[in-house]
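During the second half of the funding period, the structural biology subgroup turned its attention to how the target accommodates small molecules. The most pressing case was arginine, which had performed well in the primary screen but for which no bound structure existed. We therefore specified the complex as follows and requested a full 3D prediction, including the ligand pose.
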Amino acid sequence: MKKMWSGRFSGESSRLLEEFNASIGFDKNLYREDIAGSKAHAKMLGACGILKQNEAEAIIKGLDGVLAEIESGKFEFKIEDEDIHMSVEKRLSEIIGKELGGRLHTARSRNDQVALDFRLFVLRSGKEIMAELRAFIATLANIAKSHKDTLMPGFTHLQHAQPVSLAYHLMAYAFMFRRDFERFASSVERNNLSPLGSAALAGTPHKIDRDMTARELGFKGATQNAMDSVSDRDFALEILFNISVLMTHASRLCEELILWSSQEFGFVTISDTYSTGSSIMPQKKNPDVAELIRGKTGRVNGNLIALLTVMKGLPLAYNKDMQEDKEGVFDSVHTALTSVHILNEMLKEAKFNEQNMLKVTKKGHLSATDLADYLVREKNVPFRTAHFITGKAVAYAENLGVDLSELTGEQLASIDESLSADAVKFLDLNASKEARSSKGGTANASVQVQIDEIESWLKF
Ligand code: ARG
Protein backbone atom coordinates (compact mmCIF):
# COMPACT_ATOMS: atom_id res chain seq x y z
CA MET A 1 0.00 0.00 0.00
CA LYS A 2 1.37 3.37 -1.09
CA LYS A 3 2.41 5.75 1.71
CA MET A 4 1.98 9.51 1.67
CA TRP A 5 5.70 9.80 2.15
CA SER A 6 6.66 7.09 -0.38
CA GLY A 7 8.19 9.31 -3.08
CA ARG A 8 11.79 8.52 -2.28
CA PHE A 9 11.15 4.85 -1.50
CA SER A 10 11.31 2.02 -4.00
CA GLY A 11 10.43 -0.86 -1.67
CA GLU A 12 7.17 -1.42 0.25
CA SER A 13 7.03 -1.17 4.08
CA SER A 14 6.98 -4.46 5.93
CA ARG A 15 3.81 -5.24 7.83
CA LEU A 16 5.99 -5.63 10.92
CA LEU A 17 7.21 -2.06 10.55
CA GLU A 18 3.70 -0.78 9.93
CA GLU A 19 2.42 -2.31 13.11
CA PHE A 20 5.38 -1.22 15.19
CA ASN A 21 5.42 2.31 13.83
CA ALA A 22 1.71 3.07 13.93
CA SER A 23 0.17 5.24 16.62
CA ILE A 24 -3.36 5.20 15.18
CA GLY A 25 -4.41 2.64 17.80
CA PHE A 26 -4.24 5.34 20.46
CA ASP A 27 -3.89 8.73 18.78
CA LYS A 28 -7.32 8.28 17.15
CA ASN A 29 -8.30 9.71 20.53
CA LEU A 30 -7.11 13.06 19.15
CA TYR A 31 -9.46 13.13 16.16
CA ARG A 32 -11.40 16.18 17.35
CA GLU A 33 -8.26 18.20 17.98
CA ASP A 34 -6.73 17.06 14.70
CA ILE A 35 -9.74 18.11 12.65
CA ALA A 36 -10.15 21.40 14.51
CA GLY A 37 -6.47 22.15 13.84
CA SER A 38 -6.81 21.33 10.15
CA LYS A 39 -9.92 23.47 9.76
CA ALA A 40 -8.19 26.46 11.37
CA HIS A 41 -5.15 25.88 9.19
CA ALA A 42 -7.23 25.69 5.99
CA LYS A 43 -9.13 28.83 6.92
CA MET A 44 -5.87 30.68 7.55
CA LEU A 45 -4.37 29.44 4.24
CA GLY A 46 -7.47 30.82 2.52
CA ALA A 47 -7.30 34.15 4.34
CA CYS A 48 -3.60 34.53 3.47
CA GLY A 49 -4.20 33.77 -0.22
CA ILE A 50 -2.13 30.58 -0.09
CA LEU A 51 -5.29 28.64 -0.98
CA LYS A 52 -8.15 30.04 -3.02
CA GLN A 53 -11.14 30.90 -0.86
CA ASN A 54 -13.34 28.23 -2.45
CA GLU A 55 -10.58 25.65 -2.00
CA ALA A 56 -10.31 26.44 1.71
CA GLU A 57 -14.08 26.19 2.03
CA ALA A 58 -14.21 22.84 0.27
CA ILE A 59 -11.45 21.48 2.51
CA ILE A 60 -13.27 22.66 5.63
CA LYS A 61 -16.50 21.09 4.44
CA GLY A 62 -14.65 17.87 3.69
CA LEU A 63 -13.10 17.88 7.16
CA ASP A 64 -16.55 18.24 8.71
CA GLY A 65 -17.56 15.20 6.68
CA VAL A 66 -14.63 13.22 8.10
CA LEU A 67 -15.58 14.34 11.60
CA ALA A 68 -19.16 13.17 11.10
CA GLU A 69 -17.94 9.80 9.84
CA ILE A 70 -15.73 9.32 12.91
CA GLU A 71 -18.45 10.37 15.33
CA SER A 72 -21.01 8.06 13.77
CA GLY A 73 -18.59 5.15 13.97
CA LYS A 74 -18.44 4.75 10.19
CA PHE A 75 -14.80 5.74 9.88
CA GLU A 76 -12.34 2.91 9.45
CA PHE A 77 -9.02 3.39 11.24
CA LYS A 78 -6.26 1.47 9.45
CA ILE A 79 -2.78 0.54 10.67
CA GLU A 80 -1.41 1.37 7.18
CA ASP A 81 -2.43 5.01 7.67
CA GLU A 82 -0.04 5.17 10.62
CA ASP A 83 -1.51 7.97 12.69
CA ILE A 84 -4.54 10.20 13.12
CA HIS A 85 -3.01 12.99 11.03
CA MET A 86 -2.56 10.85 7.94
CA SER A 87 -5.81 8.96 8.47
CA VAL A 88 -7.83 12.17 8.45
CA GLU A 89 -5.94 13.65 5.50
CA LYS A 90 -6.27 10.47 3.48
CA ARG A 91 -10.02 10.24 4.03
CA LEU A 92 -10.34 13.94 3.22
CA SER A 93 -8.62 13.32 -0.10
CA GLU A 94 -10.97 10.46 -0.84
CA ILE A 95 -13.94 12.75 -0.22
CA ILE A 96 -12.81 15.98 -1.94
CA GLY A 97 -10.25 14.54 -4.34
CA LYS A 98 -6.48 14.13 -4.15
CA GLU A 99 -5.69 17.34 -5.93
CA LEU A 100 -7.44 19.54 -3.36
CA GLY A 101 -6.91 17.31 -0.30
CA GLY A 102 -3.20 17.36 -1.05
CA ARG A 103 -3.10 21.13 -0.57
CA LEU A 104 -4.06 21.07 3.11
CA HIS A 105 -0.59 20.11 4.29
CA THR A 106 0.95 23.32 2.86
CA ALA A 107 3.03 25.17 5.45
CA ARG A 108 2.73 22.59 8.18
CA SER A 109 4.19 19.25 9.23
CA ARG A 110 3.01 16.37 11.32
CA ASN A 111 5.49 17.64 13.89
CA ASP A 112 3.56 20.83 14.58
CA GLN A 113 0.29 19.01 13.96
CA VAL A 114 0.92 16.47 16.72
CA ALA A 115 2.28 19.18 19.02
CA LEU A 116 -0.97 21.09 18.46
CA ASP A 117 -3.37 18.17 18.81
CA PHE A 118 -1.74 16.89 21.94
CA ARG A 119 -1.55 20.33 23.51
CA LEU A 120 -5.23 20.97 22.79
CA PHE A 121 -6.09 17.65 24.37
CA VAL A 122 -4.01 18.37 27.47
CA LEU A 123 -5.52 21.85 27.88
CA ARG A 124 -9.05 20.49 27.55
CA SER A 125 -8.29 17.67 29.98
CA GLY A 126 -6.81 20.08 32.51
CA LYS A 127 -10.04 22.06 32.47
CA GLU A 128 -12.13 18.90 32.81
CA ILE A 129 -10.13 17.78 35.84
CA MET A 130 -10.52 21.27 37.33
CA ALA A 131 -14.31 21.00 37.02
CA GLU A 132 -14.30 17.63 38.82
CA LEU A 133 -12.06 19.05 41.52
CA ARG A 134 -14.30 22.03 42.05
CA ALA A 135 -17.34 19.81 42.57
CA PHE A 136 -15.39 17.65 44.98
CA ILE A 137 -14.12 20.59 47.03
CA ALA A 138 -17.73 21.80 47.30
CA THR A 139 -18.71 18.42 48.73
CA LEU A 140 -15.92 18.56 51.31
CA ALA A 141 -16.99 22.04 52.46
CA ASN A 142 -20.59 20.95 52.52
CA ILE A 143 -19.95 17.97 54.76
CA ALA A 144 -17.66 20.08 56.95
CA LYS A 145 -20.50 22.56 57.59
CA SER A 146 -22.51 20.02 59.53
CA HIS A 147 -19.59 18.50 61.45
CA LYS A 148 -18.01 21.41 63.30
CA ASP A 149 -19.17 19.87 66.56
CA THR A 150 -18.21 16.32 65.67
CA LEU A 151 -15.22 15.54 67.87
CA MET A 152 -12.57 13.14 66.73
CA PRO A 153 -8.97 12.50 67.63
CA GLY A 154 -6.38 14.38 65.61
CA PHE A 155 -3.42 12.09 65.01
CA THR A 156 0.34 12.32 64.73
CA HIS A 157 2.28 9.09 64.18
CA LEU A 158 -1.24 7.59 63.87
CA GLN A 159 -1.46 7.99 67.65
CA HIS A 160 -4.14 10.10 69.29
CA ALA A 161 -2.75 13.62 69.64
CA GLN A 162 -5.31 16.39 70.22
CA PRO A 163 -9.08 16.65 69.79
CA VAL A 164 -10.20 18.19 66.50
CA SER A 165 -13.48 18.37 64.66
CA LEU A 166 -14.31 16.23 61.65
CA ALA A 167 -15.03 19.50 59.83
CA TYR A 168 -11.47 20.61 60.46
CA HIS A 169 -10.01 17.34 59.22
CA LEU A 170 -12.11 17.50 56.03
CA MET A 171 -11.20 21.12 55.42
CA ALA A 172 -7.52 20.12 55.45
CA TYR A 173 -8.37 18.13 52.32
CA ALA A 174 -10.38 20.98 50.83
CA PHE A 175 -7.31 23.23 50.90
CA MET A 176 -5.12 20.45 49.55
CA PHE A 177 -7.42 19.89 46.58
CA ARG A 178 -7.71 23.63 45.99
CA ARG A 179 -3.94 23.77 45.56
CA ASP A 180 -4.30 20.95 43.02
CA PHE A 181 -6.95 22.94 41.18
CA GLU A 182 -4.63 25.95 41.08
CA ARG A 183 -1.76 23.85 39.80
CA PHE A 184 -3.87 22.69 36.83
CA ALA A 185 -5.04 26.27 36.26
CA SER A 186 -1.51 27.63 36.13
CA SER A 187 -0.44 24.91 33.70
CA VAL A 188 -3.38 25.71 31.43
CA GLU A 189 -2.47 29.38 31.59
CA ARG A 190 1.24 28.84 30.85
CA ASN A 191 0.73 26.39 27.98
CA ASN A 192 -2.11 28.20 26.29
CA LEU A 193 -0.05 28.94 23.14
CA SER A 194 -0.40 27.49 19.67
CA PRO A 195 2.53 25.64 18.05
CA LEU A 196 0.66 25.34 14.71
CA GLY A 197 2.63 26.74 11.78
CA SER A 198 6.00 25.83 13.32
CA ALA A 199 6.16 23.29 10.47
CA ALA A 200 8.85 20.61 10.68
CA LEU A 201 11.26 22.54 12.91
CA ALA A 202 12.42 25.75 11.26
CA GLY A 203 9.25 27.61 10.33
CA THR A 204 8.01 27.98 6.75
CA PRO A 205 8.68 30.22 3.75
CA HIS A 206 4.91 30.54 3.16
CA LYS A 207 3.39 33.80 4.32
CA ILE A 208 1.17 32.29 6.98
CA ASP A 209 -0.58 33.95 9.91
CA ARG A 210 0.11 31.95 13.05
CA ASP A 211 -1.70 34.42 15.25
CA MET A 212 -4.84 33.83 13.26
CA THR A 213 -4.80 30.05 13.72
CA ALA A 214 -3.97 30.56 17.39
CA ARG A 215 -7.02 32.79 17.76
CA GLU A 216 -9.24 30.46 15.76
CA LEU A 217 -8.35 27.61 18.09
CA GLY A 218 -8.94 29.65 21.24
CA PHE A 219 -5.32 30.07 22.27
CA LYS A 220 -3.96 33.16 24.01
CA GLY A 221 -1.30 33.48 21.29
CA ALA A 222 1.31 31.60 19.26
CA THR A 223 4.57 30.09 20.55
CA GLN A 224 7.79 32.01 19.85
CA ASN A 225 10.38 29.51 18.65
CA ALA A 226 9.40 26.85 16.13
CA MET A 227 12.17 24.45 17.11
CA ASP A 228 11.13 24.60 20.75
CA SER A 229 7.47 24.28 19.78
CA VAL A 230 7.86 20.93 18.04
CA SER A 231 10.25 19.59 20.70
CA ASP A 232 8.34 20.73 23.76
CA ARG A 233 6.34 18.25 25.82
CA ASP A 234 6.42 20.27 29.07
CA PHE A 235 2.65 20.67 28.93
CA ALA A 236 2.30 16.87 29.01
CA LEU A 237 4.82 16.50 31.81
CA GLU A 238 3.01 19.17 33.77
CA ILE A 239 -0.37 17.52 33.56
CA LEU A 240 1.19 14.19 34.53
CA PHE A 241 2.86 15.79 37.53
CA ASN A 242 -0.30 17.66 38.50
CA ILE A 243 -2.23 14.41 38.32
CA SER A 244 0.37 12.62 40.41
CA VAL A 245 0.11 15.20 43.18
CA LEU A 246 -3.69 15.18 42.97
CA MET A 247 -3.81 11.38 43.15
CA THR A 248 -1.30 11.41 46.01
CA HIS A 249 -3.70 13.62 47.93
CA ALA A 250 -6.63 11.43 46.98
CA SER A 251 -4.70 8.35 48.10
CA ARG A 252 -4.20 9.87 51.55
CA LEU A 253 -7.91 10.56 51.92
CA CYS A 254 -8.71 7.09 50.62
CA GLU A 255 -6.28 5.50 53.04
CA GLU A 256 -8.10 7.28 55.86
CA LEU A 257 -11.49 6.17 54.56
CA ILE A 258 -10.22 2.60 54.45
CA LEU A 259 -8.92 2.82 58.02
CA TRP A 260 -11.97 4.70 59.25
CA SER A 261 -14.37 2.13 57.81
CA SER A 262 -12.60 -0.76 59.56
CA GLN A 263 -14.10 -2.43 62.64
CA GLU A 264 -11.27 -0.99 64.70
CA PHE A 265 -12.13 2.62 63.84
CA GLY A 266 -15.78 2.58 62.83
CA PHE A 267 -15.67 6.33 62.05
CA VAL A 268 -17.39 6.05 58.70
CA THR A 269 -19.80 3.78 56.90
CA ILE A 270 -19.39 3.75 53.15
CA SER A 271 -22.76 3.30 51.46
CA ASP A 272 -23.66 -0.04 49.89
CA THR A 273 -23.74 1.69 46.49
CA TYR A 274 -20.00 2.25 46.70
CA SER A 275 -18.95 -0.93 48.51
CA THR A 276 -18.26 -4.41 47.23
CA GLY A 277 -18.69 -7.89 48.63
CA SER A 278 -16.58 -10.99 48.84
CA SER A 279 -17.03 -14.05 46.66
CA ILE A 280 -16.45 -16.35 49.62
CA MET A 281 -17.11 -14.46 52.86
CA PRO A 282 -20.82 -13.56 52.88
CA GLN A 283 -20.50 -10.99 55.67
CA LYS A 284 -17.91 -8.82 53.96
CA LYS A 285 -18.26 -5.25 52.79
CA ASN A 286 -15.11 -3.86 51.25
CA PRO A 287 -13.99 -0.29 50.45
CA ASP A 288 -12.77 -1.22 46.95
CA VAL A 289 -13.24 2.25 45.49
CA ALA A 290 -10.89 3.84 48.01
CA GLU A 291 -8.40 1.02 47.60
CA LEU A 292 -8.45 1.34 43.81
CA ILE A 293 -7.82 5.07 43.96
CA ARG A 294 -4.93 4.44 46.35
CA GLY A 295 -3.60 1.82 43.92
CA LYS A 296 -4.08 3.90 40.79
CA THR A 297 -1.80 6.52 42.31
CA GLY A 298 1.04 4.11 41.62
CA ARG A 299 0.08 3.86 37.99
CA VAL A 300 -0.12 7.61 37.37
CA ASN A 301 3.26 8.06 39.05
CA GLY A 302 4.57 5.45 36.63
CA ASN A 303 3.22 7.45 33.69
CA LEU A 304 5.01 10.58 34.91
CA ILE A 305 8.34 8.81 35.31
CA ALA A 306 7.90 7.13 31.92
CA LEU A 307 7.54 10.41 30.03
CA LEU A 308 10.30 12.14 31.99
CA THR A 309 12.53 9.26 30.98
CA VAL A 310 11.47 9.41 27.32
CA MET A 311 12.26 13.14 27.17
CA LYS A 312 15.54 12.95 29.06
CA GLY A 313 18.50 13.64 26.80
CA LEU A 314 16.41 13.85 23.60
CA PRO A 315 18.18 16.04 21.04
CA LEU A 316 16.17 18.75 19.29
CA ALA A 317 13.88 18.77 17.43
CA TYR A 318 11.22 16.06 16.84
CA ASN A 319 12.21 12.45 17.49
CA LYS A 320 9.95 9.47 17.09
CA ASP A 321 10.56 8.64 20.75
CA MET A 322 8.01 11.36 21.38
CA GLN A 323 5.21 9.22 19.99
CA GLU A 324 5.51 7.45 23.35
CA ASP A 325 4.14 10.59 25.05
CA LYS A 326 0.45 9.92 24.55
CA GLU A 327 -0.74 6.67 26.10
CA GLY A 328 0.44 7.53 29.61
CA VAL A 329 -1.23 10.94 29.43
CA PHE A 330 -4.51 9.46 28.14
CA ASP A 331 -4.36 6.91 30.92
CA SER A 332 -3.55 9.40 33.69
CA VAL A 333 -6.22 11.86 32.54
CA HIS A 334 -8.84 9.13 32.45
CA THR A 335 -7.70 7.86 35.85
CA ALA A 336 -7.83 11.33 37.44
CA LEU A 337 -11.25 12.18 36.00
CA THR A 338 -12.89 8.93 37.04
CA SER A 339 -11.16 8.82 40.44
CA VAL A 340 -12.17 12.31 41.55
CA HIS A 341 -15.68 11.80 40.23
CA ILE A 342 -16.31 8.56 42.08
CA LEU A 343 -14.56 9.79 45.23
CA ASN A 344 -16.96 12.73 45.24
CA GLU A 345 -20.02 10.52 44.83
CA MET A 346 -18.80 8.07 47.44
CA LEU A 347 -18.14 10.80 50.00
CA LYS A 348 -21.55 12.40 49.43
CA GLU A 349 -23.16 9.14 50.51
CA ALA A 350 -20.78 8.22 53.33
CA LYS A 351 -22.16 8.27 56.88
CA PHE A 352 -19.91 9.52 59.65
CA ASN A 353 -20.49 7.79 62.99
CA GLU A 354 -20.26 10.61 65.49
CA GLN A 355 -20.73 8.40 68.55
CA ASN A 356 -17.82 6.14 67.65
CA MET A 357 -15.60 9.12 66.99
CA LEU A 358 -16.50 10.64 70.35
CA LYS A 359 -15.90 7.36 72.14
CA VAL A 360 -12.32 7.07 70.94
CA THR A 361 -11.61 10.76 71.41
CA LYS A 362 -11.96 9.92 75.10
CA LYS A 363 -9.06 7.51 74.80
CA GLY A 364 -5.47 8.60 75.10
CA HIS A 365 -5.79 11.67 77.36
CA LEU A 366 -6.11 14.08 74.44
CA SER A 367 -6.52 17.15 76.60
CA ALA A 368 -3.17 16.68 78.34
CA THR A 369 -1.61 19.60 76.46
CA ASP A 370 -4.48 21.80 77.65
CA LEU A 371 -3.72 20.98 81.26
CA ALA A 372 -0.03 21.82 80.78
CA ASP A 373 -1.00 25.09 79.03
CA TYR A 374 -3.33 25.92 81.94
CA LEU A 375 -0.46 25.50 84.42
CA VAL A 376 1.77 27.78 82.38
CA ARG A 377 -0.89 30.39 81.79
CA GLU A 378 -2.77 30.51 85.08
CA LYS A 379 -0.23 29.19 87.60
CA ASN A 380 2.97 30.63 86.21
CA VAL A 381 4.59 27.18 86.13
CA PRO A 382 7.53 26.73 83.68
CA PHE A 383 6.43 24.59 80.72
CA ARG A 384 8.84 21.74 81.51
CA THR A 385 7.45 21.48 85.05
CA ALA A 386 3.90 21.74 83.72
CA HIS A 387 4.68 18.90 81.33
CA PHE A 388 5.88 16.79 84.29
CA ILE A 389 2.86 17.54 86.49
CA THR A 390 0.49 16.76 83.62
CA GLY A 391 2.36 13.49 83.17
CA LYS A 392 1.57 12.69 86.79
CA ALA A 393 -2.11 13.45 86.16
CA VAL A 394 -2.08 11.12 83.16
CA ALA A 395 -0.54 8.34 85.27
CA TYR A 396 -3.20 8.96 87.94
CA ALA A 397 -5.98 8.60 85.37
CA GLU A 398 -4.36 5.50 83.89
CA ASN A 399 -4.29 3.95 87.35
CA LEU A 400 -8.00 4.53 87.72
CA GLY A 401 -8.58 3.22 84.23
CA VAL A 402 -10.22 6.46 83.04
CA ASP A 403 -9.37 9.20 80.58
CA LEU A 404 -7.80 12.42 81.81
CA SER A 405 -10.93 14.27 80.66
CA GLU A 406 -13.00 12.16 83.07
CA LEU A 407 -11.19 13.17 86.29
CA THR A 408 -13.10 15.25 88.85
CA GLY A 409 -11.89 18.57 90.28
CA GLU A 410 -11.13 16.96 93.65
CA GLN A 411 -9.11 14.17 92.07
CA LEU A 412 -7.17 16.71 90.06
CA ALA A 413 -6.40 18.90 93.06
CA SER A 414 -5.01 15.90 94.93
CA ILE A 415 -2.33 15.22 92.32
CA ASP A 416 -0.13 18.30 92.73
CA GLU A 417 -0.26 21.52 94.69
CA SER A 418 -0.26 23.65 91.53
CA LEU A 419 -3.46 22.00 90.39
CA SER A 420 -6.79 23.27 91.65
CA ALA A 421 -10.29 21.92 91.07
CA ASP A 422 -11.12 24.66 88.52
CA ALA A 423 -8.57 23.13 86.12
CA VAL A 424 -11.14 20.52 85.32
CA LYS A 425 -12.78 22.75 82.73
CA PHE A 426 -9.62 22.66 80.64
CA LEU A 427 -9.77 18.89 80.49
CA ASP A 428 -13.05 18.94 78.63
CA LEU A 429 -12.46 17.69 75.09
CA ASN A 430 -14.74 20.15 73.40
CA ALA A 431 -13.18 23.00 75.39
CA SER A 432 -9.79 21.80 74.17
CA LYS A 433 -10.98 22.06 70.57
CA GLU A 434 -12.62 25.45 71.15
CA ALA A 435 -9.45 26.79 72.76
CA ARG A 436 -7.63 26.44 69.46
CA SER A 437 -9.13 29.50 67.87
CA SER A 438 -5.93 30.78 66.29
CA LYS A 439 -6.05 31.41 62.54
CA GLY A 440 -6.16 27.97 60.93
CA GLY A 441 -7.09 26.27 64.19
CA THR A 442 -9.76 23.67 64.92
CA ALA A 443 -12.15 25.86 66.98
CA ASN A 444 -15.56 26.24 65.36
CA ALA A 445 -15.00 29.93 64.62
CA SER A 446 -11.67 29.25 62.92
CA VAL A 447 -13.13 26.38 60.91
CA GLN A 448 -16.03 28.61 59.83
CA VAL A 449 -13.51 31.10 58.45
CA GLN A 450 -11.96 28.25 56.44
CA ILE A 451 -15.34 27.12 55.13
CA ASP A 452 -16.24 30.70 54.19
CA GLU A 453 -12.93 31.09 52.39
CA ILE A 454 -13.51 27.93 50.33
CA GLU A 455 -17.13 28.78 49.63
CA SER A 456 -16.36 32.27 48.38
CA TRP A 457 -13.57 30.80 46.24
CA LEU A 458 -16.07 28.29 44.81
CA LYS A 459 -18.45 31.08 43.83
CA PHE A 460 -16.23 32.92 41.45
N1 ARG B 1 2.50 9.83 15.17
C1 ARG B 1 3.52 10.79 15.43
C2 ARG B 1 3.58 11.08 16.92
O1 ARG B 1 2.69 10.69 17.60
C3 ARG B 1 3.18 12.06 14.72
C4 ARG B 1 4.36 12.87 14.34
C5 ARG B 1 5.16 12.16 13.33
N2 ARG B 1 6.17 12.96 12.74
C6 ARG B 1 7.14 12.43 12.06
N3 ARG B 1 8.00 13.21 11.55
N4 ARG B 1 7.25 11.14 11.88
O2 ARG B 1 4.53 11.63 17.41
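Two results from this model are relevant to the next phase. Residues 23, 27, 83, 110-111, 114, 318, 320, 322-323 surround arginine (CB under 6 Å). Strands lie at 151-156, 159-165, 193-194, 221-222, 268-269, 351-352.
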